[in-house]
Design a protein that fits this description.
Largest sheet: none
Shape: globular
Distance between the termini: 34 Å
CATH topology of the largest domain: Na+/H+ antiporter like fold
Radius of gyration: 21 Å
């Protein structure tokens, strides 16, 4: 297809994707599921797993896809736009990241975070060993070490942005449960991203290059927080207008820095999401970050993220899980992910003196993986660390663990949980907020 034809096709695809996401979202809201879950499911439904199965010719016409990548097809533009969506979204996550919230319950947050990392990681690494030796779900190029690190990191990630929004919606922001969960989620996800960085840095097989890449990442973080952040603080008055709000120039600088962060971390063979998150976290807090989020978030959430979910769905072929043995692998992955995270985090919270109900709620909230899981496994598929079959398995795991979070929380925790008027509402048995994002 030529450029003009691709552009025309793209506009039609956008309309179909957005309408489909809202229709599925309306249905999901009736059963208490957030919009992000609907978008994750919609992406899979629009791909070969359902649409392509029921109407292969129509699906191929709407989303032309050449697996050999010898012709220009949907991936020629949907891949870069999905990467832009990820970059902008992780920039927003960085802008909203608050290290100070961890300090209040540091002991419990650390315990929950460590337990929620170690146990799922060990289960993931053990599964990786079995899959590596007894299946073909890892490509030949992937080493056992890389397989174990990648699957371990995939198991222990938490959907931190979704966790934050659930806590906000349930009005648990000032409670012990909310504070410990948000602190543990932040610490755990940082550790998971660091593990993924090690995998990506070592995947080319050259130790010197790996050390160079990791050193470049460390240097980037130091420059961002100890040079860029103070510099932005000094010029902050020039980034705001007379009313104290973000100026157009401030918005331009914020987006330019985000793009430079994405370019740099991609250039050292990590991923754009690392750079955009660090740049977002390094931005001076206050009106600057608040207005950046307000101006960027609507477009990112309403347009760019649905396109990313669709790109993931077009890469997801559940039909590749075509035997009882592979469905057994899928069940084992889901069980290890759920039990490892939920049990470990609940037990750790209880061991640090929290109540049984608080501990249970923390374990349930930490078990949701959402968009963060999809980001990690998409990176793994793009880099050739995992096969399409394992990718489909991990997509199923991400959807199931995210689907379970809100109903389980309502059933086991919220309907019995009371908080003061200062920190939240007394009756938490309402259904999930359909506007909650990843």
């Amino acid at each position: 297809m030529d450029n003009a034809s691709l552009a025309i096709q793209f506009f039609l695809q956008i309309a179909v994707i957005l309408v489909a996401c809202r229709v599925v979202g309306a249905l999901a809201a009736k059963v208490g599921q957030p919009q992000v879950v609907a978008e994750m499911i919609t992406g899979v439904l629009l791909g070969p797993s359902l649409f392509g199965l029921l109407a292969p010719e129509a699906q191929a016409w709407l989303f032309p896809w050449d697996p050999t990548q010898q012709t220009r097809d949907t991936s020629a533009y949907l891949f870069p736009i999905s990467q832009l969506g990820l970059a902008v979204y992780m920039f927003l996550v960085g802008l909203e990241f608050r290290a100070d919230i961890i300090r209040g319950y540091l002991k419990s947050s650390l315990a929950v975070s460590i337990a929620g990392m170690v146990v799922p990681f060990a289960l993931g690494a053990g599964l990786a060993w079995v899959l590596y030796h007894h299946t073909e779900l890892f490509p030949e190029r992937t080493s056992l070490r890389e397989a174990a690190l990648f699957l371990g990191a995939s198991m222990c990630v938490t959907a931190f942005p979704m966790l934050a929004r659930i806590i906000h919606f349930k009005r648990l922001g000032g409670t012990t449960m909310g504070t410990v969960a948000i602190g543990a989620g932040a610490l755990g996800d940082v550790a998971a991203w660091l593990m993924l960085a090690v995998v990506l840095a070592s995947f080319d097989g050259h130790l010197s290059r790996s050390l160079y890449n990791i050193g470049g990442a460390v240097g980037f973080v130091l420059v961002a927080f100890f040079i860029l952040r103070p510099l932005l603080a000094r010029i902050l008055p020039y980034l705001l207008n007379k009313e104290g709000k973000l100026s157009d120039g401030g918005l331009l600088i914020g987006l330019a820095l985000m793009s430079l962060g994405a370019w740099y971390t991609d250039s050292i063979h990590l991923h754009a999401v690392f750079g955009t998150f660090v740049i977002g976290a390094a931005m001076p807090r206050g009106a600057f970050t608040r207005d950046l989020v307000a101006r960027i978030e609507p477009l990112a959430v309403a347009l760019l993220l649905p396109l990313f979910f669709t790109y993931s769905g077009l890469n997801t072929q559940i039909g590749l899980i075509d035997s009882w043995a592979l469905w057994g692998v899928c069940a084992a992955v889901v069980a290890a992910a759920m039990l490892g995270k939920w049990a470990a985090c609940s037990i750790a919270a209880r061991a640090t003196g929290l109540s049984g109900r608080d501990s249970m709620g923390i374990g349930i909230l930490m078990n949701a993986r959402g968009l963060m899981e999809l980001i990690i496994i998409n990176i793994g598929l793009q880099r050739g660390i995992i096969t399409e079959g394992l990718f489909a398995t991990l997509v199923i795991m991400a959807i199931i663990t995210t689907l379970m979070a809100s109903p389980l929380f309502e059933w086991l925790v919220a309907r019995h949980y009371e908080v003061s008027e200062d920190h939240g509402i007394a009756d938490l048995s309402c259904t999930g907020d359909p506007t909650v994002e990843a």
